[in-house]
Amino acid sequence: MPRPPGGRRFLYFVAAILALNFLFASFVPSDPGRISVPYTQFLAEVDKNNVKEVTSKGDDIQGVFKQKVDPQDSKKDPETKFKTFRPAFAPSNDELLSELRTKGVTVNAKPLDNGRSLWADVLLFFGPTLLLVGIFVFAARRAGGAGAGGLGGLGRSRAKRYEPDKGARTTFADVAGIDEAEDELEEVVDFLKNPDKYRSLGAMIPKGVLLSGQPGTGKTLLARAVAGEADVPFFSISASEFIEMVVGVGASRVRDLFTQAKAAAPSIIFIDELDAIGRQRGGGASLGGHDEREQTLNQILTEMDGFTGSEGVIVLASTNRPDVLDSALLRPGRFDRRVTVNPPDVDGREKILQVHTRSVPLADDVDLKALAATTPGMVGADLRNLVNEAALLAAKRGAAEVHSADFYNAFEKIVLGTERRITLSREERERTAYHEGGHAVLGMLEPGADPVRKVSIVPRGRALGVTFQSPESDRYGYDTAYLLGRITGALGGRAAEEIVYGSVTTGAESDLQQVTQIARSMVGRWGMSDEIGLVTVIADEQYPGQSDGNSEATRELIDREVRRIVDECYDRAVSQLRENRWRLDGLAKQLLERETLDEGDAYRAAGFERGAAPGDRPPHGMLKEPSVSPRDAEQQS
Ligand code: ADP
Ligand code: MG
Ligand code: ZN
After folding, report:
1. Which CATH number applies to 426-541+549-636?
2. What pLDDT does 518 receive?
3. Cβ(115)–Cβ(32) under 8 Å?
4. Distance CA 95, CA 101 (A)
5. Ligand nearest to the Cα of 238, by number
6. Is 290 exposed, middle or buried (0-12, 13-18, 19+ CB in 10 A)?
7. Which ligand 1 atom is nearest residue 211's CA?
8. CATH number of 160-340, picked from 1.20.120.80, 3.30.450.40, 3.40.50.1100, 3.40.50.300
9. Which ligand gives the minimal distance to the CA of 274?
10. Is pLDDT above 90 for 250?
């Protein structure tokens, strides 16, 4: 069951209260200053005429001595007040009463003194009830939202109304490299600013705009920029905030949010991460919290249907997963406008780097264009991180400006992982050098493979060494030859170990994972196997547990095809490396000497004149990440 946000804090709160109550109850004095004496001693004291008065109820006896008596428990001080317990086998007519009377002891029938004062009694009686009431009030307040106050705020919207003058406001100038999306939203801003321009032409103003795209591409940023640019009230809320621990609140919050927005129209409502509530309804996958989500979603749909178009309220939403959204959300009249925020291309990356280096002092040698060219696949958030890491490295050096080397070191740190200080044995280092050498040499030999940018045998993260390849320019698709080359390259580490040592190690684990993934996709998704043909036969990983709908025979065929591809590539890797053994030896030797080789040095060490020819390829679409072929460390503790 999905835990409501803040639910953990609430549990801590309850636990703390209970602990306090417990501590408190145990501190309530249990009869201070009254000692406990054995029955025999009590009788002896009566004989000694040392008892002033007694009270008794059942077998419990309390009383007061005339003179202080030492208790048996030597830790306690002598006292006059005492209590004792009459054993059950004492005869009921044991003449205690008459003896007490002869000794002139006052015998009365006051209720027994339990040693607690009145206030403690009150607390013990009413404490638990007060506690429960307190918990309820607290829960209701939380559900109602900060500041909403008391039970009345239960269904109030928690949307934050954007205040333009608070802090630095975000504008379209802060957004770069995603121009199509930006243009669409600038249009939305224009709708709100000059509605008449559109209405006079009979154009309908869209009710909803859905921003979709992978994480970090700048969807939230764009929405904030819209808020900063449009001079209209902007209500922003994250979809997960609709769903809290009190059932039924989501829907009423939605209602409240729309009421507020309509009252403030023209205005914008921004629902971030819409997939949290906008998932396909009725799917058996979710258990708890399901109805709540559905109700909230229904309410959003109802509210959007209720728009006549003249309110001047536009609903913006963002999602990383447009594919899982309920189709009802995407019907015309709801989020009828969909804006895809794509990862930036080279120029886009350069502009994003410019935005994020505005306040960073750059040295003259920094070339943002070149940096953008070496970072294919990175999105806005990655680039911001890159700039920040570079600045941190420069600060660590004590430099006044960020240099080109800082950016490249930061980039290395991000894509390859942080260096680790472990000492490898001589044999281990040599084996790693050959393993990485195998990847690199094949990367240089295979036609159309991405150029090798860096080879290193410095341990990083889980890897003992790493070979980094990235394309000359952005790639949007791959052909069969390239993919086969990539599988061959990834198998190069293993092949080199086998050729040089005649034995293998565990170091190829992630290589093999990569190989399997590419080969399976070729067969099952990209129609690159003649045996399978042009059908999709691999179930979508986004819906785990769903049957792939294949017959047993097809499944066997897939396996066979994947194996065939991998086997052929491995054979090729082995024969290529055998033929080019001198290149492998040369590269491994240089690696052992210098640990990390840049592009130029690596190619020279392997006996190539210059870097490989740039591989320009026709666009198609798939695999994004540049290839990193590490040699894994054996399971480290
Ligand atoms: P998303 O919501 O798409 O996951 P965010 O908008 O939260 O991504 O992006 C996170 C951060 O990355 C932003 O605050 C911004 O600093 C940076 N960023 C992302 N995309 C861009 C971009 N296109 N231009 C400038 N900065 C960007
Ligand atoms: Mg976001
Ligand atoms: Zn490897």
Report:
1. 1.20.58.760
2. 92
3. yes
4. 10
5. 2
6. middle
7. 3
8. 3.40.50.300
9. 2
10. no
Using the atom order of ligand 1, give the atom closest to the CA of residue 351: 24
* Closest ligand, as measured to the CA of 629: 3
The catalytic residues are: 436
Any idea what DSSP says for residue 618? -
| Atom number of ligand 1 nearest to Cα 221 | 6
Please give the pLDDT value at position 545. Answer: 54
CA distance 293 to 278: 8
b/e sequence 242-266, b meaning 16+ C-beta within 10 Å: bbbbbeebbbbbbbbbbebbbebeb
Domain boundaries, the chain: 8-27+118-153, 35-107, 160-340, 346-416, 426-541+549-636
Residue with tokens 């007694």: 54
CA of 416 to the centre of ligand 3 (A): 13
What band does 497 get if pLDDT is binned at 50, 70 and 90? very high
395 vs 329: CA distance, rounded Å: 48
The chain-wide mean pLDDT, for the chain, equals: 80
Residue 376 near ligand 1, beta carbon < 6 Å? no
Task: Tell whether ligand 1 has an atom less than 6 A from the beta carbon of residue 215.
Answer: yes
Query: What's the gap in Å between 388 CA and the centre of ligand 3?
Result: 30
Mean pLDDT of 42-51: 83
- Decide: 220 in ligand 1 pocket, CB within 6 A: yes
What's the whole-number mean pLDDT along residues 35-58? 82
Does position 524 have pLDDT exceeding 60, yes or no? Answer: yes
Q: How far apart are the C-alpha atoms of 344 and 216, rounded to whole Å?
A: 11
Question: What is the 170 CA–ligand 2 centroid distance (Å)?
Answer: 15
- Structure confidence by residue, pLDDT tens digits, 400-412: 999 988 998 898 8
Q: How far is the CA of 400 from the centre of ligand 2 (A)?
A: 33
**Ligand 1 pocket mutation, candidates 384, 387, 389, criterion most atoms within 8 A of CB:** 384
Residue 324 per-residue DSSP state = G
Residue 219 C-alpha to ligand 1 middle, in angstroms?
7
- Burial status of residue 116 (CB atoms within 10 A of its CB: 0-12, 13-18, 19 or more): middle
Does 381 contact ligand 1 (Cβ within 6 A)?
A: yes
